[in-house]
Amino acid sequence: MSVFEEGTALVGKVKSADGTIQTKELLEVCRSILPIVDKLGTGFGLVKHDVGGNIDRLASCAATKPEVYQADAFQMVRDDVAAGTHTGSSSVTKGLLWLKRAMEFIVALLDKLHSDRAMPLSTAASETYYTTLQRYHGWIVTGTFTVALKLVPSRETFFEKVGAQAGDDSTMQQMHAFCTAFGVVLADIQTFLAENDLDDPTKV
Questions:
Q1: pTM of the prediction?
Q2: InterPro entries, alphabetically (predicted)?
Q3: What backbone torsions phi and psi does residue 76 show, to the nearest 5 degrees?
Q4: Could you give the domains of the chain?
Q5: pLDDT tens track, the chain, 204 positions
Q6: How far apart are CA 103 and CA 106, in angstroms?
């Protein structure tokens, strides 16, 4: 099973029968993406570190009330808001927000590689960054990403590292299926954050 097939299978378990986003299952999908981030090159070590840190933050919170928080990721945020701790940089709310943003970047990048099968990875990564994450970054972080974007491997090398072939139709279909399925989950998270005025535009 490819990393994309595995991801799609995991996404299918994220929502409960009533449509609630389950924390453990959501985080399992995000963990499955870490190897993909890793294959983008050493410059993306910061992204991998941030994603891993936010996964751990949400997992630690969920473990404090597993009967409630594992079944509903959003309840952790509601309780965070109720406690007035949601604006802190290390809050659960900020953890979910930034995890969602990082995942949106990865999904958008993979989708771009699917849409344009001739586009170099460096071009796809750069274009995706400037249409997703860059708006939330100050000049220092943007500078760091600018360097990272220059260090990505070739498109062919990237796909080889994730155990696939760059032009293989089966790989492209699997990747697109993952992007489509996980994109729905990320859109639900974005809707929740936006409706509760938690989509903080402050730059880091």
A1: 0.96
A2: GLTP_sf, Glycolipid_transfer_prot_dom
A3: -60, -40
A4: 3-195 (1.10.3520.10)
A5: 788 999 999 999 999 999 999 999 999 999 999 999 999 998 888 889 999 999 999 999 999 999 999 999 999 999 999 999 999 999 999 999 999 999 999 999 999 999 999 999 999 999 999 999 999 999 999 999 999 998 999 999 999 998 877 678 898 999 999 999 999 999 999 999 999 999 999 999
A6: 5
